Amino acid sequence: MKQSDRNIQRTLPFDISLKIASSLQVLDLCSLGSCSQFWRDLCGSDSIWESLTKQRWPLPLHSSSLEPNTKGWKEIYIRMHREKAGRAAEVVGFVEQCSLSESIDVAEYQQAIEDLSSMQLSFEDVQMFLFKPKFNVLLNLVGLHYCIFCLEMPAGQVMDTLVGCNILERKVCVRWWKLGRWFYGFRMRDESHSRWVSLEDLLTGKGEEVLGVLRRGAVYEVFRVEISMSNPTSTSWYCQSTQGQD
């Protein structure tokens, strides 16, 4: 045993050391584990990684993650992380491909939500894989929608996360078209509506109407919905956004 490890054991009781390690997030835990043999053994303990795994993925673990040759909970955690990262990357690629023109149709948008739901991504997964400033805002929006309606996360907790990821104030333009109303046997012109909202708005009452449109999609009298990253300072966007305003 190295002298540094002996010094740690003399100054810190094992239960205190374990409590310190158990309070850390994964990256900090791995950093601490690289300090010495003592911390490497402690930070790799099954009790810590079992807790981290079940905190991140509270649903029952898939049988493939518990195969007989698995060495321990740290290996299970790493395997699941890679699996979720790979599947989330498929959704990222799908949305980026669909939004090459800086907009996405609501059917493709909802398909991305369904794909995330089938993967059973956790809130921490969404933070890691979708709430990235380097991604376009449409991907951030997909993650936000999934957290609100599929994971049913509290708005305050999601908002704090978006603040930490520096994406809370990012904006999207949501446009939808409604069939014209019938009036004395004649159908009026189709109505178009457009709203420019931030991710923060969608977590408050300001974005309630837009959230409803995104959740329902093109159904009933609404025959088309489009989400875009249009520049709000452009004249063309201004003309579109004012058309059909209530």
Automatic annotation (TrEMBL):
One of its GO terms (biological process) is protein polyubiquitination. It holds the Pfam family F-box-like. Signal peptide: none annotated. Gene3D superfamilies: 1.20.1280.50. GO terms for cellular component: SCF ubiquitin ligase complex. It comes from the Eukaryota. Residues 12-52 form the F-box domain. InterPro entries: F-box-like_dom_sf (IPR036047), F-box_dom (IPR001810), FBXO4 (IPR039588). This is F-box domain-containing protein. It comes from Dovyalis caffra.
